Amino acid sequence: MGKVNTILFDCDNTLVLSEELAFEGCADLINQIAAAKNVPLEKAFTGESLIVEFVGQNFRGMMRSLQERYNFPLTEEELDTYVKKEEDVVIAKLQEKLSPCPNVDDVLERLATEGKYELAVVSSSALRRVKASIEKVGQDKYFGDRVFSAATSLEKPTSKPDPAIYLHALKVLGKKAEECVAVEDSKSGTLSAARAGIKVIGYVGPYQAAERLKMEKVLAQAGASIIMDDWKQFEGYMAAIEQGDY
Fold first, then answer.
1. Which of 21, 41, 55, 182 has the most crowded CB, counting CB atoms within 10 A?
2. Over the range 230-242, which residues count as b (16 or more CB within 10 Å of their CB) and which as e?
3. Per the UniProt record, which residue ranges are transmembrane (predicted)?
4. Rounded to whole angstroms, how far apart are CA atoms 203 and 234?
């Protein structure tokens, strides 16, 4: 393996504990849209049921999946309006309650002090939301303008598991895939990085104990080289990757 000089972090539930808060706001909005469009949902979505179904997908991706499933009309214009509304709803929730993932700030601080790696964020979420998240918890200082969003940074918005956002980040940063390691908590994120040829550390810390074992398997099958359940393990795993153990 070539020398690793860049670490690419997913944002939601990898750097910050945002997924639950975001899905809560998102579920409310999807239920409103379903009512307005007469979509026959089996039952209203909750943050919890939405997470189970759509973890790792952005709102645009969720709406497209639901549209396919229930076959209701939705113009591009309407979709754009809803996407913007969802951003506002979620950002308000995040600014109220967001906290960092346990022990990640210590790792970021050490990495920044060491200066051995370039650090970037690669997310499916809208850029405004990602920036609001990392600013709220004071992590923005580690990343500068190296923040990439599948929903915003690409000419054609997409969502992980499409590798487009990772390929875009590599291009902008001027890096080869083998110079990078990505940290991802979802199947779609892990697939996205792995499909771009990037080695992935799968992070299962935020999952409930019962879900964690299942997610370890899911992330490994999606292409994660290592599974980490606490950020305290990160430096040890990075050293192992650099020695070629993974």
1. 182
2. ebebbeebbeebe
3. none
4. 10
